Amino acid sequence: MKLSDINRRKFLKQSGQVLVGFNLLPLAFCTPNEANVMSDFADKGKNAVDSWIRLNPDGKVTVLTGKMELGQGIKAALRQIAAEELDVGMDMVEIVIADTGKTQDERYTAGSNSIEGSGKTIRNAAAEARRILLEKAAGNWNTSPEELSIDKGMISQPGGKSASFWDVLQEKSLEGEITEKAPKKDPKDYKVIGQPVPREDILAMVTGKSLYVQDLRLPGMIHARVMRPPSYGAKLIDFPKEEVEGLPGVIKTVKDGSFLAVLAEREFDAIKGLQRLQMGSRWEEKTLAPPQDELYEKMFNSHDKGDSIEDSLPSNWQERGEILEAAYTRPFQMHGSIGPSCAIAQMENGKLTVWSHTQGVYPMKRTIADLLGMSEDNIRVIGVPGSGCYGHNGADDAGADAALLAAAHPGPPIRVQWMRMDEHSWEPYGSAMAFKMIGIVDSAGNIEAWRTELWSDAHSARPGGKAGHFIAANTLENPRNFEPGGFSAGSYRNAVPLYGFPREIVHHDFSTPLRTSAMRGLGAYGNVFALESFMDELAHKSGADPLEMRLKHLHDERAKEVLEMLAEKINWSSNRKKGNQGWGLAFAKYKNAASYFAVAALVEADPVNKDFKLQKMVGVIDAGQTINLDGLKNQTEGGMIQSASWTLFEEVKYDSQGIVSNTWASYPIMRFSHVPEIEVHVIDRPEEEPLGAGEAAQGPVSAAIANAIFEATGSRLRDLPLKPEQINWDKLQS
Amino acid sequence: MIKDVRLNVNGKEHTLQIDPATPLLYPLRNELELNGPKFGCGLEQCGSCMVLLDGMAEPSCMRTCSSLEGVEIRTIESLADGEKLDPIQEAFIELQAAQCGYCVNGMVISAKSLLEKNPNPADEEIKEGLQRVLCRCGTHSRFIKAVRLAAEKMKSTTL
Ligand code: FES
Ligand code: FES
């Protein structure tokens, strides 16, 4: 199936593409000089088949995606889709991820939409490639494409000729437009999609061979540390320049306004330089207001009218029965990536290359162009995986730091590694939120009216082209200021119940003192916590079974089914409460448009020690057509544990001087001792569209835990994180 | 301040010219080009940088090089014997125990140290053995299962 060397060379000449010998992280090994050679790459645009799928001369198929591997296993899932539609073995399919020099602009890898977006395009491109190949072969053999079949990259005629894709192409590249009309496989015939395909990168991880951006060592690379201001908005007065530059190994310091960094040959020398800067620099600081203990009060009492997101309440709704009210809060929480952000940048002959674990290589390119006043044509951003990010963490900011330093010190590749405190103190957090819920329920458990009023800061402040979104840019001599965008939909994500009852949802934009942006699920985490906790409160108030009450108000069969399956798995009706143990459940359809997820939590109270333990969680997910069964389970389990950690342990603390939660000691997350038993069940629907699943668990888990705590202890906890101190233990003892 | 420091890493003696106060993690990653141990906090709080020091899993981000002369240092790169993986590595692959994988070094090294001392750990002991290592992706339950599976694999090979 492979081309001979001579043929290969000819092939390359004709196709004008250099795609030989890519492995999973192709550009990680690129020498810096190669990195800037983009002439081989002819961008044919989004509609060209070979912008997404290429047949390599070495007998492999390369899939190109603008999406980034974030630990969610997207590479395996996209390879599966291509292998399925093209009828080639998984071992023949390689993938190239986010690189502005090679892949299409697919904006961000976020919002659980990689399979729905990139996956769909790759499926169309593969189907188109299949059609082209079949037509070519049919033409060669004077038959019709319908007569031919494909297996493992071989096209054959029943009882007749056969040829590989490569023979059929005859050293030409695969060319054509994606028409979306090429026949796609019937899901009934799937052999690869839906299977638990192992991820190839795990072998590299367990042998220490994996390559994260933190691991790249480019020839001649030097190390940088940025001295972040001691708090938001602080201005640099002076710093011990001579002293730091006199330290062994230090190349120089870079200062632009209040942006301050040290460059050194060796990494530890840069760290020592940073420590010296931290001790010896002087800053003029601002205070943060309002203080943390007044924040929610300020939200609840804000005087703006808010925006009505939906209103179907009849005018006389208040007369329909007793009005129940409850207020809930969600604190600032952090992404808390285990590997602090890192980037490498190199400026050579006016061309800049940045290696970054950003979620959006193209938006980053645009924003860096704005930051440095450069033409986008002279910038290339290469995506290299980092530690899991779960949204907009420090990745882009580290990229901007590196770009600024490369501009100030052209020549060598410069590696910027954030320290732990940088990531904890400067990443944009998931916004604090407050909720006022009002409901009326009759004695039969029918909800007559519902009203949600919520307050939140922005859930998206990604650098989409404006340099002010980089923290470094705010501190320059000629600062670029942050301009908040008009996007507030993230705040009320999942605030509108999927349940059918009259309701009104009001959203208030509230500007908090902390930096906030997109974190897994955006507002859905807080909104579902409030919504699904309040559903439980209404059920208990009316004496209805919380499961029955949910089912009664749902009109979507798939929603009901996840709940029903869940109830069966945990034997809800007979197990709901036993002694000091209680099960709580919750449900959401993420974004009201993606995966359906129902979850139950089992909490055991320990009245003697005034403590409780999350023992177990069981989840049921319907993500439509399952691409990679094991990948879907893995990601869902992960989301459940992460959300349990947010729910039980996490709150970013600040005081007037700045962020207090600056290490894992002051911002603890869940460790093994608290990890519950986890079970995930999948409802596969091969006939349906695949739905985004990565964020489905975040919201429901929080409410399921709160509802379980209520079953186990009789106390209703409404303020995240849910702590044993909030429980009325006297109630339990009596 | 640059001095000769002798380190025994993965069975080989290395003489490095570095500041002896440098934490072990940096020369492992930079001078010796071992990417296994990761930087996570530099504060001995997260376990990303775990290595085996005389067989015990320990963070390498604060221990100075000078304090480790004469200590047998092993990194995750040394667990496999050529193509032949350690049962822990096999178990992690079999159960697909990773998401982003950044914490996997700490998990594997901690498991190695645990199973060496206690070849038959109960789940609570596994949790204790991995307690120092943080995972943000929530892969914990798979890590626990993988260590359990590794223990079984080791038993069946020694029988
Ligand atoms: S990096 Fe060493 S424990 Fe975190
Ligand atoms: S798998 Fe990502 S931190 Fe553990």
Automatic annotation (TrEMBL), chain B:
Pfam families per record: Fer2 (PF00111), Fer2_2 (PF01799)
Record-annotated 2Fe-2S ferredoxin-type domain positions: 3-79
Gene3D superfamilies on file: 3.10.20.30, [2Fe-2S]-binding domain
SUPFAM superfamilies: 2Fe-2S ferredoxin-like (SSF54292), CO dehydrogenase ISP C-domain like (SSF47741)
CDD domains to which the protein is assigned, alphabetical: fer2
Annotated GO MF terms: 2 iron, 2 sulfur cluster binding; metal ion binding; oxidoreductase activity
Alphabetical UniProt keywords: 2Fe-2S, Iron, Iron-sulfur, Metal-binding
Protein known as: (2Fe-2S)-binding protein
Organism: Litoribacter ruber
